[in-house]
Every structure is written in structure tokens, then in C-alpha cells.
Amino acid sequence: MQVFKFGGASVKDAAAFRNVSFIVQKHSVSGQLLIVVSAIGKTTNALETIFGLAHQQQNYSSDFFALKTYHFSVTQELFPEKGNPVYEALEHLFVELEEKLQNLVPDKFDQQYDQVISFGELLASTLLHHFLKAENLPAMWLDCRKYIQTDSTWREGKVDWTWTEKLIQRDLPEMLKNQIIVTQGFIGGTSDGQTTTLGREGSDYSAAIFAYCLKAQSMTIWKDVAGLLNADPKIFSNTVRYPQISYQETIEMAYYGASVIHPKTIKPLADRQIPLFVKSFLDPESEGTRIGNCPHEKLAPAFILKQNQCLISFGVKDFSFISEQNLSTIFHVLSELRIKINLMQNSAISFSICTDYHGARMEKLMETLRDQFVIQYNISLQLFTIKNYDSESIRNLTSGKEILLEQRTRNTYQFACRA
Length: 419
Ligand code: ASP
Ligand code: MG
Fold this sequence. Notes:
Elements: E1 2-6, H1 14-28, E2 33-37, H2 43-55, H3 61-78, H4 85-102, H5 109-117, H6 119-134, E3 139-142, H7 161-176, E4 180-184, E5 187-189, E6 195-197, H8 203-213, E7 218-223, E8 244-246, H9 247-256, H10 266-271, E9 276-280, E10 289-292, E11 302-316, H11 324-336, E12 341-346, E13 350-356, H12 359-369, E14 373-387, H13 391-398, E15 403-408, E16 412-418
Parallel strand pairs: 1-2, 1-7, 2-4, 3-4, 7-9, 8-10
Antiparallel strand pairs: 5-6, 9-10, 11-13, 11-14, 12-13, 14-16, 15-16
Bound molecules: aspartic acid and magnesium ion.
EC number: 2.7.2.4
GO molecular function, one term: aspartate kinase activity
Protein name: Aspartokinase
């Protein structure tokens, strides 16, 4: 059996849905298939805006209306026949979503975020399920919240693997015998029936969870690029595709911020030696990339950019050195606030970290540590990483940039600079 993941771009309009159906049709004849789908187009961003407005008790109705119109215009193109049950199913979801938005309470921001933002995937999977059925494919809709079990770490649910695998193994092999399962990416559920999300762009991870639990033959991520490239073609020119690459290399690239695959995706696949294919939905017959257990020669340097970075330096207040005790204090607060370090370095009297910028969390960090350290910071920075660098790639990338922090290991070169 195989797991396919279709991201937002692959279902952004009616033509894209038809293309997905074409790909599914082609593959479903050769074996069992489970499909994980993300919210269509930029729905998740739109939902975040709506949720933000609703949370501040501002008027969200025009954004809500736009989102609804978007979904129904795709639907109308796909289902000219008005009586199709998809209309009622979507209408029902929008009513439920609006109810949630109208009943927000001031605290519990993260918890309510999950209850609201998850609707993107519920809508997309409903739409895809009905469309595949209309195309005479034996599709069924699966509520993944009943299978992917997480704790209640809102916005980043931690998967209960034992329980999740048990539930999936209990039901899905039987369902897959004669049906194509269509389910949601990005979301999960707690044991008391609340919806959680797995972190932005988490649908890849969802697909890997299903692949792992079903011991799938392979997993495929269908993207708008030709495979796993050495850089994002929207940012860098002259990109090259890796025809095959190891789990290890991929996991590191994802860790440094290559947005092509969610960082948590690789581990479950590597644990069960399930190959991951990254293929273009625009050119489904082309080779793409195979990620697996493969040895390879020196790879082309990979370039990764993380935007909106914050560089924070913690200095000691007397003239003592930065001690393990100081570091332990800083790490403890970072972990409490769920601030992730992208790069760190220490000198005799200060310790510096580069992290993604989150206004509220930064303020809390300053507030907590201000008494013990002299804190300096810069925001709106860029963090570049070159994996498998050579001197030419470093020269080209750093040229003309004002570097605030840099670090070089045997394989990786990183620097933070002004944007
Ligand atoms: N729709 C979600 C997001 O945009 C999950 C995903 O696309 O993987 O973050
Ligand atoms: Mg998405």
C-alpha cells in the first residue's frame, strides 16, 4: 500500500483537483492507497487571519465570506450538478466553523486556534472525497482525529505512537482492501475528543505517521517542484534536483529550514525503511527524488534561507564568564517558552542564539531573564545555511552581506545577516 500527500498548491483550484484525480486514478489500479490532503491554496493563512480577528473581537465577516466563496467557487466548477451532497457537507462545516468563531473565550488562544484552523483540512478532504467519488473512484472519507492521537500540546500535538498505531492497525487495513482513504493532514485528536494541530505545514508529517503505522511500501509527496532541490527556486536561481538522497541528509536540510519537507516527516519513515518520493504534480511521470537509505558521493551544496530571525545575546552582568549554570537557566526558559534555537554560539561573557521571531514569546523571555543578564537583540534578520559547502558557494552567498554571526562545521556553514 502507498501513502500520497497532496499539499495546498496541488488542490488550489478546480483544474488542480482534476489533476489530483488523474494521478490517483493512475496509481490506484496498482494497489491500495491512502491520501492525505492539506487545506486548499492559502486557506490556512486565511483561517489564521480570521481567527486573529475573531479573537480580538474584530469584524472577520469579509475574510470569512471570501474563504467561503473560494471554497464554493471551486466546488461549483467541480460539481455543476447542484444536488451533489458535497454542497451540504461544506455548508455544514462552515456553519460549525462560524459557531466556533462566535464562541471564543479570551484565554485559551492556542487551544482554540487548533479548533478553528483545523477546518481547512476538514473542508479540503471533504471536497476531495466527493470529487473522487464523482470520478467513480471508490473513495472514503476518514476523520484522522479519531486515529492520530496526540496529547494536548496545542498547535504542536505530540503523537501517542502506541495508541495511534493500534487504532490505525485495528481499522485501516480492512478499509483499504476496497477503498481509497481520503484523510486530513496537519490535524489530530486528543483522547477526550478535542482537535489538535501538529504544527504549520504538518501534513507531510501526518502522511508519514500513516505510512509508519500501515508499514506502507512507500510515501509520495506531490509538489509543484520537480523533486527535492538543493534550494528553493523561488529564492535561489540555478537550482539542481537530487535524484536520490539519504534520510540523514534530508532530515538535516529540513532541520535547517528547507521548506520542502516538514522536519518531523523523515524519522517515522526511516524507522521503518519506507522510501519517500518527492514528485511534481505538474509532471507526474518525471522521476522526482527518492529519499531512502542510500549511500551517495558528495552532494551539490544545499542553500537554505530562514527569514524573520532574531539574534539574541545574553551577557553576564558582572565580569564572570558564561557558566554552565547560566546556560542551564537560559535553556530552561527557552524550553518553557517553546523558543527553538536555530543557531547558537558562546563567547567568554555572552551567549548568542538565533531564533524565529515571535513577538509575545520574546517579550516574555526578556521579562524573565532581564534581571540576570544584559540582553541585546536584533530582529528582521536572515539566517542562511549551506550544507555541503565549498569555498565558492560561501563566497557567492556572503558577498555584499552584513554578517552578524557565523559558524562553520565540517559540513555546514551558517550565518545570520541583515535582510
Ligand atoms: N494547511 C496546513 C498549513 O498550511 C498544513 C500543511 O499545509 O501541511 O500549515
Ligand atoms: Mg497548507
